[in-house]
Design goal:
single chain, alpha+beta, 3 domains, six-stranded mixed β-sheet, four-stranded mixed β-sheet
């Protein structure tokens, strides 16, 4: 076999131009396979991520039992305690109808959020949710990930050069970026060690970076003076959260331990859970509720001192929907999750697979062209080396020896093209992801399959010329010119 391999390499060097052109054709075909596979896998991962972000796999837990009026069992807008109904804006005792529309939209929005309707089902203060309770909830079956968040305003140190005296601090855990689909645009995320130690690092969005440092091209490396120590910006993120783009109070994102030190507390404002699949969200929500009631020591018949709801529960009330429609979805959230969302997820996954199949067909054509190139050079090689073949057979070479020799040449040519194609494909994926911001993915299995496909192509398209060479009559072959 080694002898055949040496002879194959020698034969390729004797026909350099043809070999180079054939290698180019094969490498382009394999590169297309790698690029298409990377794009398809990246698209499927992106779809899965979007399904996870959009689908009702999220459970939100907040201290205090506040029920949006749109899904109040009475069907009436909650006006208890002098507060306004859903969607109202209060300004000095007036409703939104009396608000001067010339005011800043951001101020109106801030007032609306500050007067959001709340219906308290108990008279005692809500029990804080701390890290120990979060750890207990993480052990519930069906919980994929869990993260706590705390928010509050923090004042900057006197003499700060920044164009604001207050920042909205949003604390987060290490699992939070993956749960919410944050996209790192520049720099890095805080490390696990920085989360544990409460290191003075933070993240900002592009809008806030431009707000705080309008004359600088990058916010990474900048510092914000808070509580007597500079907090360093280590990354810029893209997030869909409205707080990140607020122009009222700029929001920055810090590790929870640091945020807690700045805000002077250890309890969370919100705890977010991601379930393992859409179908188990309702069951997990029920288990979470039971566990929190036990941790808070709530007896039978006592009202919850927290609120745990799925995305289905809160999907419609905040969108100004008819209260009857909101109640219908709320009361049938289990069916809503297991039918509507699963059907949508199935359709999206099918669309992703179809996209991959279409691209795979184009890649197969490119690989076919490369295989035809291998067959072409092998036929030319057989024709040019007829006398050599006749001489080998006259000296005792068997038919299968000649066939193996030319098959090894074909496979060697295809494998070399495959290796070059992997390199070209990897470069193409890198350029696609970083130059065009398109999701891609690479796996070792994909690389192995690409080389294997190249080798199989070499065997398939090299078999005909190899068999033709092995069937030559030695006498006629020796007489050929």
């Amino acid at each position: 076999m080694l002898t055949n391999l040496r002879m194959a390499l020698k034969a390729l060097t004797q026909n350099k131009l043809q070999a180079i052109l054939t290698l180019l054709g094969m490498s382009v075909g394999v590169a297309m396979v790698v690029i298409v596979s990377g794009l398809g896998l990246g698209a499927q991962q992106r779809i899965e991520s979007q399904i996870e972000s959009a689908g009702p796999t999220r459970i939100t837990i907040k201290p205090g039992n506040f029920t949006p009026s749109a899904i109040d069992s009475s069907g009436q807008q909650d006006s208890g305690g002098g507060e306004q109904g859903e969607g109202s804006v209060v300004a000095n005792g007036d409703t939104s109808a009396n608000v001067d529309m010339s005011q800043s939209a951001a101020i109106v929005d801030a007032r609306r959020r500050s007067t959001a309707p709340k219906k308290t089902e108990f008279k005692t203060p809500p029990t804080p949710i701390d890290a120990a309770q979060v750890a207990a909830l993480s052990k519930i079956a069906g919980v994929k990930s869990i993260a706590g968040q705390m928010e509050g305003n923090a004042s900057l140190d006197a003499g700060s050069p920044l164009p604001t005296a207050i920042l909205r601090v949003s604390g987060f855990d290490a699992a939070w970026p993956d749960m919410t689909g944050w996209k790192l645009l520049e720099g890095r995320l805080p490390s696990a060690g920085e989360h544990e130690s409460g290191a003075p690092v933070m993240l900002v969005t592009p809008a806030i970076a431009k707000r705080l440092w309008p004359d600088d091209a990058s916010a990474v490396g900048k510092t914000v003076p808070m509580s007597g120590k500079p907090v360093k910006v280590v990354g810029v993120i893209g997030t869909s959260e409205k707080a990140g783009s607020s122009i009222v109070v700029p929001t920055v994102y810090l590790p929870n331990k640091l945020a807690g030190a700045l805000l002077g507390r250890t309890s969370y404002d919100t705890v977010t859970i991601r379930t393992q699949s859409i179908g188990v969200t309702t069951q997990v929500n029920k288990a979470v509720t039971e566990e929190l009631r036990k941790l808070h020591g709530l007896g039978e018949g006592w009202a919850n001192d927290f609120r745990a709801e799925t995305q289905s529960n809160g999907a419609l009330p905040g969108m100004g929907s008819d209260p009857r429609l909101a109640r219908a979805v709320h009361s049938n959230s289990a069916g809503f999750e297991q039918t509507s969302w699963e059907e949508m997820a199935k359709s999206l996954r099918q669309a992703g697979r179809t996209f991959s199949y279409l691209l795979g067909g184009a890649a197969a054509v490119s690989l076919l062209v490369g295989g035809i190139g291998v067959m072409n050079i092998m036929l030319v090689s057989v024709a040019a080396r007829t006398r050599e073949i006749g001489l080998r057979m006259a000296l005792g070479a068997r038919t299968q020896d000649v066939m193996v020799q030319f098959l090894v040449e074909a496979v060697t040519l295809a494998a070399l093209g495959g290796l070059i194609g992997i390199a070209l494909g990897s470069i193409g994926l890198y350029v696609t992801e970083h130059g065009f911001h398109t999701a891609t993915a690479v796996s070792p299995i994909m690389m192995f399959v690409a080389v294997a496909m190249a080798a199989i192509t070499g065997i398939a398209f090299g078999f005909g010329p190899a068999r033709r060479a092995s069937l030559l009559d030695p006498v006629i072959a020796l007489k050929s010119e």
